[in-house]
Known about the structure:
This protein has 3 domains: 3-135, no CATH class; 156-318, P-loop containing nucleotide triphosphate hydrolases (Rossmann fold, 3-Layer(aba) Sandwich); 331-491, P-loop containing nucleotide triphosphate hydrolases (Rossmann fold, 3-Layer(aba) Sandwich), CATH 3.40.50.300. Helix content is 28%, strand content 22%. The chain contains 14 helices and 22 strands. The protein starts with a strand and ends in a 6-residue tail after the last helix. Residues 107, 109-110, 114, 127-129 line the site of one zinc ion (ZN).
Amino acid sequence: xxxxxxxxxxxxxxxxxxxxxxxxxxxxxxxxxxxxxxxxxxxxxxxxxxxxxxxxxxxxxxxxxxxxxxxxxxxxxxxxxxxxxxxxxxxxxxxxxxxxxxxxxxxxxxxxxxxxxxxxxxxxxxxxxxxxxxxxxxxxxxxxxxxxxxxxxxxxxxxxxxxxxxxxxxxxxxxxxxxxxxxxxxxxxxxxxxxxxxxxxxxxxxxxxxxxxxxxxxxxxxxxxxxxxxxxxxxxxxxxxxxxxxxxxxxxxxxxxxxxxxxxxxxxxxxxxxxxxxxxxxxxxxxxxxxxxxxxxxxxxxxxxxxxxxxxxxxxxxxxxxxxxxxxxxxxxxxxxxxxxxxxxxxxxxxxxxxxxxxxxxxxxxxxxxxxxxxxxxxxxxxxxxxxxxxxxxxxxxxxxxxxxxxxxxxxxxxxxxxxxxxxxxxxxxxxxxxxxxxxxxxxxxxxxxxxxxxxxxxxxxxxxxxxxxxxxxxxxxxxxxxxxxxxxxxxxxxxx
Length: 497
Ligand SMILES: [Zn+2]
Ligand SMILES: [Zn+2]
């Protein structure tokens, strides 16, 4: 399709010769006027496609005439894909304002050297002449049966948090749920989601990781059997499905615009959300003006923790695990200058002893190491202890398979980079960190790593040891954080001691 720009307005060429040839691209989000042209045929598929979304015009499988009729009747809005302020470009889809992330190409549509955003290019090109299309009224969903089919019970700590989540959903506020690793944070959401759905609100659970989307979807579908749950991640097929409950990677939120009444953001502190402004913009853009926002994390960043302390942030803690046992507290073991003897094929004696004890007692263990290139050095040493010891890292093509074999108890000890710091649960587990002083082991990474131990009801305890060559502030703070959660749990009567 050909376009021209006349007086800052985008003009699809087929419309140039018609009576009202232009359509303005603006940020108007006014209540649509009653239909002007009663003859046009309302397209429900287009409505479904665009509700709560912001899609480039080119992605819509309809003719410009048909699309434009919906604009004229006040149903559809156009926004510019790229806007300019004082000569500086901004991508309206991903919020990018870094000029290095813009480029220009000879565009056949507008016939100029057209600016486009490279930052969100993987989701299709947004250029200066690309309108982003949205539906102007976001319909609420009529869900005939949003009832929760869950018969479990919440722990006392979970119940407190659940009530607060319900409040936040009801009054469109922002809430941080600070729940220790293994607290059972997903169950805490059920009641709030049920409330939201009953009020015809549209809910999204967003998470940085595809694994989590894949894990949560069947779980949520099982507890809300009568509603449709959309599952969105790179390459998923539910892309254009309209659902009252959406589970998505944060990245997928770039397609949404003022869509959700409630967004639940899992693992806010995790990479890449914590450092990627695009994703933070995407979340902001996907919320309705009036909406609730619930953050979930076991390890809020220091800034947020300070805001909590000063009463500047609405938050609730779940300081204890659902099984009412305190969090295992890390032991610090000095292991000297461990990198040097490693070159001669030697690991610190004290670590070897620790690993040997695990093999003897047949307790599975994770050994966290700071760098991927230590694997080929350490693995052969440990193979002398046991031939079935394995190692895993982020780019390992057998990553999933190895985690599964660990679950099947076919691997006694798994060496890992920080990739397994979150999200994995093995029932009877001890954990060691080698080189805990390394910069990669931040306070929150260490809290998460310690959080792998003692998660199951059958095995609620376990050993977590930081082998180090010099204690860092991160190590000390991590231990302090765990101790203070345990203290709070005792004070609130959430653990049996
Ligand atoms: Zn962009
Ligand atoms: Zn162009």
